[in-house]
């Protein structure tokens, strides 16, 4: 971290404009993003590598091998260590070289800088720009540093800036020069003098606090002018649609805001990696135990037996073999064993894991056409490959709504003004509610829009493409359009309402000043929709200057002088504009959330008393229709009061310390005694495929929490429309908006209201938990919460997240299948995510906007959606997709595959290393633990990095059990990852026990077959020491690859090549290395050709021993799969058997599912699972939650049996046809019969009617094939 400079320790930053020297020392504009330089590269790179405990261990072993105690040569330990470290360091070097080249390109860019000494403009490189200098930037050029905008080629001092490199937003931002400097030009900038007092550099892109002090010969008199972010041009952004701009450098180089933001994202490690650390610790413990056992046994043997062995010359033995010092002998033996048995730890595991994860990301996730969004030309992107397998273990998804589940394409749809509701359109949410209730569908007026209006309906659910109506306006009601509003009961109130729409905003008009051609540049789609509505109602906003807004009202242009803008933020939840109207009045126009507007209404105004309940009822109705609501209000300000307030506001705006708090406090003083005008209702359609995706995720037993800023009724109805909520669910609502709280707030007793609300929330949570537990007891253990949902609003959540209620909220949330949090702030999103994360389950946060960044970074996995709100969420995410529906493919297919691949690869690594290490240990038992080596040094060195390297890479990259279509048709398969069934204790124990058994069996068989009393050739020669070692090592290589072959489920030419290549390269090594001169090849000189190959026993042993070692485990797994098949096994067999099915698909099959599955079945799949516990039928979630599967099947258009466990479906139909069958059959025979029946292989002796089982088969097969 950079040491704070003396300038950083001063109260504020002082910059002199156009001065050769600054009063404080600031950094230059040179930037470097490299991690290393020529001096620090090697030390830092080695430090990064040795942060891994395994690398430290192997270095220690290599150091010990240099001593006389080591039984192996140093080169054989240093060689694999050097290969592993070399590959990792080379990768680091290449990445840093690319960063250095990019830095050089940026630092060498040219720009125009005014030189006060020369009195002229000079071209300089970016790296030579200094703080306080004036820079001229041309159109379509990057800003070289953070600048204060002085002037632009635009007469109003406005510059259009593209910030896509900073926050990902493609819409142009408007930057405004101060009135005191916007007259400057390149020819007059020499006379500019003054100082800038501002805050010290920070990482906030959206805040800036400072003052500009101008003196002679600047403006006419000394002035202190407040500076805001609207006048700051940030490094990394681009000047657009403006010929040129002048700015003074305020932050340069690494002090610029973009460089302050150049920090690494939060470090995230997957659950498998964390568990892998535990397994490595277990292997270390096993290694330690083996070393202790070896040392103890050898010390005892040396002390008790060696004195009688005269041929060992124990009198002159070295300390390591001195029978008179057993303790020292044990210490030496422990150190030697530590080196000899060190192959238990896989040295190449970390490097292999990195290579595999990168391959998974680029070959599968980034290249998947099923996650490619054609409309925006956006593919999926794995921004990090560290969490691939974590995608297959997600228990809870925390999702934003707007822009994530919806399109974030806002359209003005309805409104309420003066207590009257306007708008006759019918939303798709209302249609869905009517369908659920069995009521007649609301009539769609289908009226043609008037005066640029939109149609009456909202269009199809899930469609985001704009229709024929005006963008942002989809309103139909003849009472308001075409000037008809003037004939309403309260035209004055309507006029004020429309003026708020046209004036209270920060929108910038672009293009011709004509209603049909103008375009609005807005910070949010909501704001653009409101301005478009004002235009449609006859209040056409067409021009903005620094101080005015021009609105065409009824054909006449009206100029509003903008006095102040009180901006919106997530804490205020409102924005206000103070303007001088054409009539000379000073008006405050305000819009915001109903909760904050209602708190600021004039309680003494009888009109407010009349409108409050009516408008609240209308907002609840709009919310029930799935619309987003905003309240609009206004107030006329007394000129004397405003002048007094303006002085306070100016003081707050020029404060250098705590400016935001001061401005907010002053704003509170003026946003009071408001007159309620009404509310707006904006529609945001669901994205295509959202209901189907949520239904399939629910079928995979993944919990979903939706965190939204909408009102409760809006969120609930959208939850129903997108299949998150169901009518058969018990819906528990927790709200702080109880009547007692409302009464207290209406009278201004907010402290008492907060206390009552907290107690109400506590009681509602307790009641919800009791209700869920009662329902669970009534349903039995079969129900796991799938029939319950929780809805909680923002005020209630503020109390529920407190330390005294946090656990209650968590208990209720865990017991529900779905949770909807309404009126949630960005901070609350992160807090809720942290709360769910604290339970230990894997969480996934998904969102599309800057307000979702905290949630995305807090979750185990962050997924960003590249939507209408820019790319902030994507830039902070681990994975990026274009639409929510792609989440199903990302989790149920790629996540599940990655989890399966990574866990199998890691388990195989530990298996093969344990087997190899135990062969050395078991052989030493026969050698009385003397530390005798059996293998040549290079055998052991190359075992991990050459002879067994390729197959794990192939398995980890492209292995799979079922194809993409099958994975999505049977979402319950996903639960294997959530329950960690393939890398749990039982699964790992299977691999490790098999390694121990096979090592012992292998050593015993080889030593028995190569006994010294057995002649190996016709000349009577016996097996030599190195011949036995080579034979045993060959058996190790063959056995581990044969074991892998028996557990593979997906074979491609790469699998065949990897296994054959690894075995072949071992024999090639023996052949080539043995042919080298004796001084090089040493122990294995001409060993294969001259000694081993001519022995027939060698080839016979090679053929028998691997089969004998692997066969018992293979048979046990086969028996288990046959008698107790699990869900995954059954689905795999269905896929294999269905590949050869010739019967046509059933009439009720879903083409959307059947067709992709038929195209995807291209590979033959074996019937092996590896060391995975045989789960009980249904354990993967096919029939839990109890009712969610039927709903999911209905949403997907599938038959109910398509998502049920096929064995359960077949058994159910068989039991209906023949109830006595269950009593006459054993458990295993029932399962076997049902399995055969489900696949159309009816046993001749079975009494089950073939028709019932054939129906089960015909219902299942068309969905896949």
TrEMBL record:
> What Pfam families does the entry give?
Cation_ATPase (PF13246), PhoLip_ATPase_C (PF16212), PhoLip_ATPase_N (PF16209)
How is it placed in the membrane, per its record?
Answer: Multi-pass membrane protein
Feature: compositional bias, Low complexity: 1222-1237
Provide the binding site for Mg(2+): 400, 402, 848, 852
Q: Which residue ranges does the record annotate as region Disordered? A: 1222-1246
GO CC annotations on file: plasma membrane
- Which residues make up the binding site for ATP? 400-402, 527, 568, 591, 628, 708-710, 823, 829, 851-852
Nucleotide-binding among keywords: yes
Q: What is this protein called?
A: Phospholipid-transporting ATPase
């Amino acid at each position: 971290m950079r040491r704070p400079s003396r300038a950083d320790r001063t109260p504020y930053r002082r910059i002199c404009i156009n001065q050769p020297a600054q009063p404080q020392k600031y950094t230059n504009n040179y930037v470097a993003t490299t991690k290393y330089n020529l001096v620090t590269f090697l030390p830092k790179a080695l430090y990064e590598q040795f942060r891994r405990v395994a690398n430290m261990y192997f270095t220690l072993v290599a150091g010990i091998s240099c001593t006389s105690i080591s039984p192996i040569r140093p080169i054989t330990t240093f060689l694999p260590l050097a290969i592993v470290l070399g590959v990792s360091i080379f990768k680091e070097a290449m990445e840093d070289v690319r960063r250095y080249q990019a830095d050089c390109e940026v630092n060498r860019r040219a720009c125009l800088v005014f030189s006060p000494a020369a009195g002229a403009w000079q071209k300089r490189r970016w790296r030579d720009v200094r703080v306080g200098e004036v820079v001229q930037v041309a159109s379509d050029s990057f800003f070289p540093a953070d600048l204060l905008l002085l002037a632009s080629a635009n007469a109003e001092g406005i510059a259009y800036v593209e910030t896509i490199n900073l926050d990902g937003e493609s819409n142009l931002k408007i930057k405004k020069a101060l009135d005191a400097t916007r007259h400057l030009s390149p020819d007059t900038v020499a006379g500019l003098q003054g100082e800038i007092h501002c805050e010290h550099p920070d990482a906030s892109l959206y805040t800036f606090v400072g003052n500009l002090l101008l003196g002679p010969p600047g403006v006419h008199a000394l002035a202190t002018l407040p500076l805001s972010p609207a006048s700051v041009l940030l490094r990394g952004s681009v000047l657009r649609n403006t010929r040129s701009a002048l700015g003074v450098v305020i932050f340069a180089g690494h002090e610029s805001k973009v460089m302050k933001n150049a920090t690494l994202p939060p470090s995230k490690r997957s659950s498998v990696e964390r568990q892998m650390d535990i397994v490595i610790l277990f292997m270390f413990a096993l290694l330690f135990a083996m070393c202790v056992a070896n040392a103890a046994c050898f010390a005892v043997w040396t002390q008790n037996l060696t004195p009688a062995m005269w041929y060992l010359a124990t009198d002159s033995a070295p300390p390591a073999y001195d029978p008179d010092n057993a303790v020292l002998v044990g210490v030496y033996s422990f150190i030697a064993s530590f080196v000899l048995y060190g192959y238990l730890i896989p040295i190449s595991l970390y490097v292999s894991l990195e290579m595999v994860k990168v391959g998974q990301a680029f070959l599968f996730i980034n290249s998947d056409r099923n996650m490619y969004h054609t409309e925006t030309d956006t593919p999926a992107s794995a921004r990090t490959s560290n969490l691939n397998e974590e995608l297959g273990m997600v228990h809870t998804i925390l999702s934003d709504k707007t822009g994530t589940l919806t399109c974030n394409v806002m359209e003005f749809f309805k409104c309420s003004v003066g207590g009257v509701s306007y708008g006759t359109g019918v939303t798709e949410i209302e249609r869905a509610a009517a369908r659920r209730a069995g009521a007649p569908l609301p009539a769609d007026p289908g009226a043609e829009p008037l005066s640029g209006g939109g149609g009456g309906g909202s269009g199809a659910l899930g469609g985001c493409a704009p229709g024929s109506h005006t963008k942002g306006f989809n309103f139909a009601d003849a009472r308001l359009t075409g000037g008809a509003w003037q004939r309403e009961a309260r035209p004055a109130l309507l006029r004020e309402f429309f003026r708020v729409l046209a004036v209270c905003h920060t929108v910038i008009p672009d293009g011709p000043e004509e209603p049909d051609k103008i375009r609005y540049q807005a910070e949010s789609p909501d704001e653009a929709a409101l301005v478009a509505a004002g235009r449609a109602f006859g209040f056409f906003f067409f021009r903005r200057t620094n101080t005015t807004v021009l609105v065409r009202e009824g054909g006449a242009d009206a100029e509003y002088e903008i006095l102040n803008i009180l901006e919106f933020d997530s804490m205020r939840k409102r924005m206000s504009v103070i303007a001088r109207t054409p009539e000379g009045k000073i008006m405050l126009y305000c819009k915001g959330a109903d909760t904050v507007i209602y708190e600021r209404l004039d309680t003494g105004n009888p009109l407010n008393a009349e409108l409050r309940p009516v408008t609240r009822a209308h907002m609840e109705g709009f919310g029930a229709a799935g619309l987003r609501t905003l309240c609009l209000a206004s107030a006329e300000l007394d000129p004397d009061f405003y002048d007094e307030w303006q002085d306070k506001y100016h003081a707050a705006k020029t404060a250098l310390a705590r400016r935001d708090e001061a401005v907010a406090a002053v704003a509170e003083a003026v946003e009071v005694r408001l007159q309620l005008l009404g509310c707006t209702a904006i529609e945001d359609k669901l994205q295509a495929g959202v209901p189907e995706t949520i239904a399939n995720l629910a079928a995979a037993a993944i919990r979903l929490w939706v965190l939204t800023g909408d009102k409760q009724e809006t969120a609930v109805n959208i939850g129903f429309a997108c299949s998150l909520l169901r009518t058969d669910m018990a819906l528990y609502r927790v709200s702080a908006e109880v009547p007692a709280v409302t009464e207290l707030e209406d009278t201004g007793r907010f402290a008492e209201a907060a206390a009552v609300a907290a107690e109400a929330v506590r009681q509602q949570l307790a009641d919800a938990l009791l209700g869920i537990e009662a329902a669970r007891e009534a349903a039995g253990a079969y129900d796991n919460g799938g029939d319950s949902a929780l809805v909680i609003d923002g005020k209630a959540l503020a109390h529920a997240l407190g330390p005294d209620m946090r656990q209650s909220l968590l208990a209720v949330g865990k017991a529900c299948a779905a949770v909807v949090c309404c009126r949630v702030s960005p901070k609350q999103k992160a807090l809720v995510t942290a709360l769910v994360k604290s339970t230990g389950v894997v969480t996934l946060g998904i969102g599309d906007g800057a307000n979702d960044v905290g949630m995305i970074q807090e979750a185990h996995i962050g997924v960003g959606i590249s939507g209408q709100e820019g790319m902030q969420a994507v830039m902070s995410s681990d994975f990026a997709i274009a639409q929510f529906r792609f989440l199903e493919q990302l989790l149920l297919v790629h996540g599940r595959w990655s989890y399966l691949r990574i866990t199998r690869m890691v388990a195989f690594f530990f298996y093969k290393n344990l087997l190899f290490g135990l062969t050395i240990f078991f052989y030493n038992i026969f050698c009385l633990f003397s530390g005798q080596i059996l293998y040549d040094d290079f055998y052991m060195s190359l075992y991990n990095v050459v002879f067994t390297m390729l197959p794990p890479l192939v398995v980890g990259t492209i292995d799979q059990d079922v194809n993409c279509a099958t994975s999505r048709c049977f979402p319950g398969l996903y639960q294997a990852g959530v329950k960690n069934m393939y890398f749990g204790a039982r699964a790992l124990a299977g691999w490790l026990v098999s390694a121990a058994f096979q090592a012992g069996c292998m050593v015993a068989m080889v030593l028995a077959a190569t006994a010294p009393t057995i002649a190996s050739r016709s000349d009577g020669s016996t097996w030599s020491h190195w011949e036995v070692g080579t034979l045993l090592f060959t058996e190790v290589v063959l056995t581990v690859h044969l074991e892998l072959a028996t557990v593979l489920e997906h074979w491609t030419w790469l699998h065949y090549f990897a296994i054959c290549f690894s075995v072949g390269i071992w024999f090639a090594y023996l052949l080539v290395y043995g042919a080298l001169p004796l001084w090089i090849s040493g122990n294995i000189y001409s060993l294969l050709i001259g000694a081993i190959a001519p022995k027939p026993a060698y080839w016979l042993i090679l053929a028998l021993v691997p089969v004998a070692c692997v066969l018992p485990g293979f048979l046990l797994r086969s028996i288990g799969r046959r008698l107790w098949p699990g869900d995954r096994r059954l689905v795999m067999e269905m896929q294999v058997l269905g590949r050869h099915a010739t019967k046509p698909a059933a009439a009720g099959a879903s083409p959307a599912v059947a067709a992709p599955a038929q195209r995807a079945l291209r590979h033959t799949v074996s019937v092996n699972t590896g060391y995975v516990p045989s789960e009980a039928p249904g354990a993967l979630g096919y029939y839990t939650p109890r009712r969610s599967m039927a709903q999911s099947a209905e949403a997907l258009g599938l038959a109910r049996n398509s998502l049920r466990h096929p064995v359960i479906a077949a058994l159910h139909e068989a039991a209906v046809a023949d109830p006595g069958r269950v009593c006459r059959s054993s458990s295993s025979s029932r399962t076997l019969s049902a399995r055969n029946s489900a696949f159309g292989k009816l046993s001749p002796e079975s009494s089950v009617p073939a028709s019932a089982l054939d129906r089960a088969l015909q219902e299942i097969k068309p969905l896949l094939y």
